[in-house]
Amino acid sequence: MTDVPRDLDRYFSENAERIRSELFDLLAIPSVSARSEHDPDTRRAAQWIAGSLGAAGLKATVHETPGQPVVVGEYRDAPAGAPTVLVYGHYDVQPAEPLELWTSPPFEPSVRDGRIYARGSVDDKGQLFLHIKALEAHLAVRGKLPINVILLAEGEEEVGSVNLASFVEAQKQLLRCDAVVISDSAMFAPGLPSVLSSLRGLAYFQIDVQGPAQDLHSGSYGGAVVNPAMALARILATMHDAQGRVAIPGFYDAVRDWPAHVREQMRTLPFRDEDFRAEVGAPGLGGESGYSVLEQLWTRPTCEVNGLLSGYTGEGAKTVLPAKAMAKVSCRLVPDQDPAEIERLMAEHVRRVAPPGATATVTPLHGGRPWRAELDGPLYDAARRALATAFGREPVITGEGGSIPVVGDFERVLGAPVLLVGFGLPGENAHAPDEWMSVENFEKGMRAIAVLWEEISGDYHSQY
Amino acid sequence: MTDVPRDLDRYFSENAERIRSELFDLLAIPSVSARSEHDPDTRRAAQWIAGSLGAAGLKATVHETPGQPVVVGEYRDAPAGAPTVLVYGHYDVQPAEPLELWTSPPFEPSVRDGRIYARGSVDDKGQLFLHIKALEAHLAVRGKLPINVILLAEGEEEVGSVNLASFVEAQKQLLRCDAVVISDSAMFAPGLPSVLSSLRGLAYFQIDVQGPAQDLHSGSYGGAVVNPAMALARILATMHDAQGRVAIPGFYDAVRDWPAHVREQMRTLPFRDEDFRAEVGAPGLGGESGYSVLEQLWTRPTCEVNGLLSGYTGEGAKTVLPAKAMAKVSCRLVPDQDPAEIERLMAEHVRRVAPPGATATVTPLHGGRPWRAELDGPLYDAARRALATAFGREPVITGEGGSIPVVGDFERVLGAPVLLVGFGLPGENAHAPDEWMSVENFEKGMRAIAVLWEEISGDYHSQY
Predict the structure, then answer these.
(1) What is the ipTM of this complex?
(2) CB pairs below 8 Å between A and B: how many?
(3) Does residue B79 share a domain with residue B39?
(4) A1 pLDDT band (50/70/90 cuts)?
């Protein structure tokens, strides 16, 4: 294990105060993309990022979209044959409400106990900013970067990145690259640098069951008319078997096994089921038998009810036989499950199990492909060495049960592998009051990324 | 089959216009018990009924209650040994909204196509009033009644008869009687006088399933945490077997078989499944196999979902793993099922089938006993002859899937059998705009009730 190069390390140390002060300026901008009254602030944050990129020595452009601008910074002066890396981040933040639950105001950054408290500190302004500072350090100290860099910062991540995919499609020449690096996730535990190996995909449906044409009196009609809420319950109950496996025929056909060494490594992570159970506050855990909790969350597909609505839901008793019943149902997917194929299987299954006397309709609402990282190529190797250099230990491989749709978009449109290396921590309150980022992770993260550019240049030079 | 006695028949004919005019006065009073702004109207209706009873020759008293008054009319001058009959009805009405759907204003009675249109025309002012006129006819023509009569009219039937049971308890000496007669129901079809043989009871529950302590992200947590909405669906799906029978162990233990001749008679009623299906607007019918629709509705118990609520129920997709799920569930009961016993069985069943990892709670909300008429005694025989005399054909025996709690209260407190003989018709819009009562049924109903007092006096004299 080597050290962080002395010149870069010194730059970060000597400029620590200025860097912190700049970060606080960025965090003070309430760029809440979900609230149109904050549009001027969100645009101001875009301009701020562009200014910061320019000051670091990149060519910065603010691209208009139908929504918030996309900011692109470019450095194209690396030696011939050097790879091009695209860095993605976002400058918009979640709404800060409820404000009264914040210990210090969300847009007045404050350091307490080694943590930077502010809305956006970890999601994602702090992590985006440390990338800009890593680039700045190379250019300030050495006057050059060993790789070409495109830094792309969007302002609509917290509202579903609605304009990003079409922007990437339209600008795919500008954005052409050999690898994509994203820091918008968390480490598994303090001191454990982490590389995210997978994201689950999603197939989200609404199931509507229509019984009688209108609500009926459950006394006068009950017993001869099929109750759509009961029919819906019977449909939903067919979706798992007694072992917690999804019982939709064909559901697992495309599931690809995980490499044994990755599963092996997951089992060594510091994790206690009882801590997890206490964290969620459930009386017990469940799910597919034969898998650990982390395997269930990261490596296995699911079928969940996200919402139920039928008939009378107020206080007390109303004797109604409802005309209809609705469920929101979603499947988390793992490679190589295809949302469109899962939609087909779900619709077919519901058609097969729906009781006569009611009409069940399945409407797909939303889909996203699962993703799995290449953990063997030069990109991962470079990240492994860079993280080891900055944090003093080899990274662990983690997974993520949720979805980040842009990851798949980048891979698909740009044809480049994606590296997800984040510096958040469990309990960081990314979408809640008192969001924070660890000062130590910010400092080490900046250094890890600075080293990553060196490692990538070496790896790519030698291997491609 | 005999004719309506000439003197009574002539009285009804000669006074038809005055009787109609008085009925219209009663119907014009907007005695909507559910609306406190109508309290003065509701009290006015009580006074109106008392005045009408007094004019007919009964001793009328208005009894205050914590809510609307109870009006009692008494005739105690029948020959020694004559039975005492209690007539029950109500002078309050449903709200008339939405007013724009009425062809003529709800409180301006109007006759069209042989129907009296007004709020309360059939439910229950018209039917209560024809009882008063039947008593009046006897007293006017003959100066006496062959039986003792207590007429009880309440003003809170449409808001759950909240003060009636305690009034009956408190006044049980005053209300002591040999039989109770109620006209607040409908005939099976035009020209088919009907005696209601049964009412179903009710056991109404709320089932709450608690999973994690708060809503979770379905991506980050889905697969390891028991989903309470899915758990609820699995619980509900255990409540019926594949034949549509309720699958709660012990549920049918107390169900008493129906007399073969009653079932036989129900099968001869003019009823087409397809008409019923079209009326409810469902794609097909369902329920317990091996029973006709009318048997399902009148003679068999049920288990229905009345409401479902969990997680996200708005438009589009939200990836939430809900903390909790709720179902309103109710069982219609038939003799001799006991609501308290069904509550016990339901709680025990849910406890047994609820999956681990979530906590299911069953809360009883409401209960009422089922009721079945004695179809062999002198009361029923008298009704059969009276209806045959007035309508020119023997009555049919019908059932009712809903519940009328006061029926059980009268039987329990007063120890007297109840006769439910109503003169409404299918499609009468009892709780909807354009409520109506058939003019023919009003005229024949008055005569049938007048004859009933004769028939009861004869029957009871000879048999007791």
Answers:
(1) 0.89
(2) 292
(3) yes
(4) low
